[in-house]
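The methods section describes the discrete structure representation at length, but only in general terms. What matters is that the chain and its backbone geometry are given together, residue for residue. Nothing conveys this as quickly as seeing an actual entry. For illustration, here is how one protein appears when written out as sequence plus structure tokens:
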Amino acid sequence: MGFLNLFIVALMPILKVILMTGVGFFIALDRIKLLGPESNRHLNNIVFYVLSPSLAATSLAETVTSQSFMTLWFMPLNLLLAYIFGSMLAWLLIKITKTPTHLQAIVIACCSAGNTGTLPLIMIPAVCEESNNPFGDPSVLTVAASSIELAALLPSMNVDSIPMQPTSFHATTAKMSASKTIMQRMKIITENVDLKKVFAPTAIAAIVGFVVGIASPIRKLLIGNEAPLRVIDSSAYILGEAAIPCMTLIMGANLLRGVKGSEVSTSVIIGIIALRNIFLPMIGKGVVKAALHLGVVASDDKLYQFALMLQFAVPPAISVGTMTQFFQLGQCETSVIMLWTYVVAAFTLTLWSTLFMWILA
């Protein structure tokens, strides 16, 4: 397949993301006020407690089997490697740009944590739906894409599930030695863990969906056109379908803050853009090639390899902005970084997706 045809295939899902994000951005404007701060918070709660659990449960129940579970084990390790390489590059960027201390954690988070949930969950099924995709029959690939992306979606949904109290944190650690500071931080994290959020609805729903998918007797009761209790799965599936559009609208609304600007330097923004959109995708390609060489990833599963590479090429995770709200520090700076990285990613992610498909094809 020619490079131009692959570019068109890669462009379609990016355009979908841009359009939906643009709608979220527009309805969050002050003169529209359909998705202001209060509405955004309520929609977040609906996604967190209802829509995302429905999506996780139904997707896992319908697609995961014992065989598919064994083939996807490398994906969490791939995510961990992306975090490690991103953190290392962020440390170099901080040293080169002499990033202020209060912004260093934001830079590390933006470089290490990618949007491995929302974007791939939209992009991979959209690529599979294209008739001229390089991976095969669209009807077969859509099912495979669902199981692949749920392995990546679940960790990203729970990144911000452990809240901490920043005021007491800074007050108690300001004058301590390094070892005592670490111990104090661990103590504060432990004391402020909300078990209801650690065991988040999505995580619980994922466990339920996994059990349903693996256990054949339960699966026959709930999944399939002849299942006696198929109405339960069908109803949850309808709710789950709303999760992705809502998450994308929230993403667009969160980017609005970046328009107002902040004190973050241009060199830091350019550095983050370069790391996330140039260096990390190159590293991701090398990681997947190494995994193929070692035999931990099947050489004939091109869609799985594409998903693994894509995890290195996505822009920063939107949940980074949520974390800054917990600390009440750097919210404007994070929004500016998000705005520019997502604007650039609209072009670079299309090019990287095209290149990945061209390599695999």
